[in-house]
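>> received
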Amino acid sequence: MSLWTWFGLHSGNASTEWPLKGEEHGQTGVLGMPHYDPASCQSGCSACAEVCMTHAISFVEPPAAAHDEVGSEVSIEAGGVAAGARQTHHAPEVDWGRCIVCQRCTEVCPTGAFLPSDDWAVGVARREDLHWVAPRAQLPEPRADAQDRRPFHRSLHVRHVDAGSCNGCESELQALNNPFYNLHRLGIFFTASPRFADVLLVTGPVTHAMKGPLLEAWQAMPEPKWVIATGTCAVSGGVSGGNYACGNGLDEVLPVDIYLPGCPPNPAAIIHALLMVLHRAQQRMKGGRLER
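>> returned
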């Protein structure tokens, strides 16, 4: 008996039972998307926006100016303020679809408006749900998908296309087949041919050189078919978006069914996005907030 065979028999099953049972998703203690609390913003401060290299944090108006505009106004009810009075300041706009999870905003924020968190299940069916909006302005629930996905509930084949990635996302995709995640146990498989694929999983900002091969893969897939923009580059272009070599994300080229930001998104987040295609997992981020 080989040493590895003995080790495997002695150790037992190494695969997690998540998401079928339990919460052992492998991301405990791992940094995710920062937590944003605009009520904690300091008037006139723009430190977060200044360090955000992908413009995930930005100001529509100068940070020192206070305006009564829907979506940019934050109400603060503090001690010493007369009942019914409202003090407003201009908070930044936040687009998690541009966030590369570098944590620089959490490092420079003087008031704790941006704090580190372990938020990772951020896949969404609508690009708008990655934009932070005030609670009263949250978007309505999306309409049910007209396509019948029942035949795919127990089996899904995925064709991956690298459309200019740095290979960070690819390293996480490889982890899906390790003993811990063991993607095959969920009935999800990667396939080398788009002709046998149900889902096109795209990484990278879609460089001009890869646009043609990407469209060929899409056209070769049979109906019904779905597209997952995997990683911040595929969602919005990322750090290199809009330069001489690429556009600003996958939805400029193909219709996207699931947007999954992250740099890179972790294996559990990718599994969650794939299960969203099958309607076996629910979207957790709405209006830029992660439901707990």
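>> Confidence is low (pLDDT under 50) at residues 65-88.
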